[in-house]
Amino acid sequence: MTDALGNLVRFTLVPGQHYDTVGVAPLLEQADFRGLPADRAFDVHWIVDAIRAQGACVVIPQRKNRLDRRPFDGALFKARHLIENFFCKLKEFKRIAMRSEKTDRSFEAMIYLVGAIINSR
């Protein structure tokens, strides 16, 4: 999760064989935001309901097979490139891209360190 400027706020590590939606619940619990742009993979009922329960705007494009259609703000969705840009900057660091750390804890620490370096630029 990044802020409006594309700076790292928090993240969760999930195993590679799980869906991305597994790590969303801990991110939404303590978050304070007005809108949450995400891609179609996060167009799940419980995520949309959790975002609406916090009084935030849902900025997630709908899947084609979704029966209950909701309004979508395409202009606000364009801000999602900040998140993608952060991932590109994160992967410039070889230790992150190659996952050189042996434990999850040291990998998390390296991500926070690199996030701080990126934010200080």
Automatic annotation (TrEMBL):
Residues 2-117 form the Transposase IS4-like domain. One of its GO terms (biological process) is DNA transposition. It comes from the Bacteria. GO terms for molecular function: DNA binding; transposase activity. InterPro entries: Transposase_11. This is Transposase. It comes from Komagataeibacter diospyri.
